[in-house]
Every structure is written in structure tokens, then in C-alpha cells.
């Protein structure tokens, strides 16, 4: 099957180090500008579906805003597991502590999957994505 590239955004819409979420033919996609090279990944985190464009992009590593799983946007590989919240020295109220314990127990059974990536290319100032 040959890849069909479609226009996604103007390259100027995402500055270097930035991300932009779009929807294309029913696919939720995040376009990442990594120093002038564009990558496209599925928008939803491979852990618990958080919107990845709300995370942080450092080079080609994207950190999810919810539980800090890191992904390599060049291939979608999940590089780490989720990180539980850290309250430092602060002791949460007993009710909140119990809630966190329950969340922690549930999260143990949630697998983290790598995410889908899409081939990209630049053409006449446009970022094209293969669907
Ligand atoms: S939803 Fe992304 S790390 Fe949990």
C-alpha cells in the first residue's frame, strides 16, 4: 500500500520546540517541530490517553503531562513508565491519601503502549503527513 501524503499545517504554525494538535481524516495527531524537523504522532498518550500536546518537548523526547511517561517522537517508543505524584514533605489529608492509594492500585494494571507515528515531509512551506 502506498502512503498518501496530505497537507496538515503550514510549517510556520509550529515554532521550533513547539507542538500543535490537529485532526486529520478523523485522526487526532500532534505535530512536533524538533529544531526544524517535523514529526507527527498520535495525540493520545499510550498510558491513559492524556493529550500529548499539553506535555513538554525536549529535543525529540516528549513527556506526557499526566504521569510523565516519555516518548521518542521519532519512532513513538515509550521510553519510561508512569511516575506517581510526588508531594514532597507535604502529607495529604487521610481521604486524599486513600484516594491516591486507590489510584496507585488501579494504575499498576494499566500498561503503557508506544504511540503511533506518521511519516512527514515538507513541501512548499507545508507539513504533509502520510495517512
Ligand atoms: S496518561 Fe500519559 S503518562 Fe499517564
Task: Write up this protein.
The chain is mainly β. The protein has a single domain, classed as 3-layer Sandwich (Rieske Iron-sulfur Protein), CATH 2.102.10. It contains one helix and ten strands. Strand 5 (56-58) and strand 6 (61-63) form a beta hairpin. The longest helix is centred in the last third of the chain and has 14 residues, at 94-107. The mean pLDDT is 94. FE2/S2 (inorganic) cluster is lined by residues 45, 47-48, 50, 64, 66-67, 69, 82.
Task: Give structural attributes.
Rieske Iron-sulfur Protein; 4-stranded antiparallel sheet; 3-stranded antiparallel sheet; 1 helix; 11% helix; elongated; binds FE2/S2 (inorganic) cluster
Structure described in brief:
This protein is mostly beta strands.
Topology of this structure?
Blueprint: E1 5-10, E2 19-24, E3 27-34, E4 37-42, E5 56-58, E6 61-63, E7 70-72, H1 94-107, E8 117-118, E9 120-123, E10 126-130
Antiparallel strand pairs: 1-10, 2-3, 3-4, 4-8, 5-6, 6-7, 9-10
| Assembly state | single chain
What small molecules does the structure contain?
FE2/S2 (inorganic) cluster
Strand content: 35-45%
Mean pLDDT: 94
Give the N-to-C terminal Cα separation.
Answer: 11 Å
Amino acid at each position: 500500500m502506498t502512503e498518501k501524503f496530505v497537507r496538515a499545517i503550514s510549517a510556520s504554525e509550529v515554532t521550533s520546540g513547539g507542538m500543535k494538535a490537529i485532526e486529520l481524516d478523523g485522526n487526532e495527531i500532534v505535530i512536533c517541530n524538533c529544531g526544524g524537523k517535523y514529526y507527527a504522532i498520535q495525540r493520545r498518550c499510550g498510558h491513559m490517553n492524556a493529550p500529548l500536546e499539553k506535555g513538554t518537548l525536549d529535543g525529540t523526547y516528549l513527556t506526557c503531562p499526566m504521569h510523565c511517561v516519555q516518548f521518542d517522537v521519532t519512532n513513538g517508543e515509550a521510553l519510561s513508565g508512569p511516575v506517581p505524584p510526588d508531594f514532597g514533605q507535604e502529607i495529604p489529608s487521610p481521604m486524599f491519601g486513600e484516594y491516591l492509594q486507590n489510584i496507585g492500585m488501579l494504575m499498576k494494571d494499566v500498561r503503557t503502549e508506544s504511540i503511533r507515528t506518521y511519516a512527514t515531509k515538507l513541501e512548499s512551506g507545508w507539513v504533509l503527513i502520510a495517512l
